[in-house]
Fold:
Amino acid sequence: MDPMKPARRPHRKRAGVAPRETHKSCATPFESVALLLQGGGALGAYQAGVYEALHEAGIEPTWIAGISIGAINSAIIAGNPREHRVARLRAFWEQVSEPRDGGWADQWTKLITFDAARGWLNQLAAGQIIANGVPGFFTPRTPPPYLTPPGAPGATSWYDTTALRPTLERLVDFDLINSKAMRFSVGAVNVGTGNFAYFDNEIDVIGPQHIMASGALPPAFEAVEVDEEFYWDGGLVSNTPLDWVLSARSDLDTLIFQVDLWSARGELPRDLSEVAVRMKEVQFSSRTRAATESFRRMQELRAAFNELLAQMPPELAATPQARLLAEASDPAVYNIVQLVYRSPTYEGQSKDYEFSRRTMEEHWQAGRRDALLTLAHPEVLIPPTAAHGVEVYDFVTPKAEILQPEKDPA
Structure:
């Protein structure tokens, strides 16, 4: 080995258990407030609206975690002082939705109220994105990948995301993220191993490359190199950081806001266009309800063991098996608050790359509206009273769907 060349880092281990979370003060009865942001491209403005409402209510996350566009929003929030976060989110979303047609499409959408015509205009706007890219985010490759030799730069993606790095460097203070004032995590997939990995400021020095790796969705974007390994968008494996946050052995009473951009539930498609929409929803939805139900069952088992432990003779409680179960017990309580974006029918299959200004504003306002509706229910801020309690709230999804919980695929 060349002594002047740094040793190659081993493959990052598959994401399993997050490092322990430490208590940070927050203006709620909880000891930790986690904001979890799913991937979904242009739909991510919904998350910005949710954060704006939380910000105005004085609820600030102590831990923020994201995938793909959720990683970008997370970096902007964690990488700015509280008083600048909404303005920096607004700056990003106005940049990527900057009209490139003189604003004619946005003017027409203000006048059109019926879905068929609105859907047609959205498709035109999405076509502009396909042809021209998004300012400060990505641009089409010239020459295109099918004219590029295998292995050459640009041969593995349709778009170049070089423009995203200066955007992140302008809007995000990475020194602030790495100061650990707020816990920060983003997920990606190791291209070489196929394993899911989290970049977490508890164990990593976070830079623009980690955010870009989390959002490198193939074949639109090429893999991003981090520590001599290459990563794709975390949504290929899991589009939510919920499991990562719940795996942390913190013993802290935790309030979780899970903000999803894709609904796991939907209608049976009637044509190929609706098939394309439903495919994306199934692929990228987090199945949050199944994960939370599984976690709730785990907490019930932990509570049952604690009750048995209190009744055990000392010699039985001291056995390795009993100590192992005691270490796995989590005395904390959790409120998991779900906010799931419900897209209008006219948005269609291009809704995750339709970056028009008018649609961005609609997504932002939808997130703000849903968060205000949720915060109008004071119970979301009250910790469960039962030991190992887990309460799940969803005031956005229609009740008929909530009454039919998702089944754990396992």
The first strand starts at residue 32 and ends at 37. DSSP finds 15 helices and eleven strands in the chain.
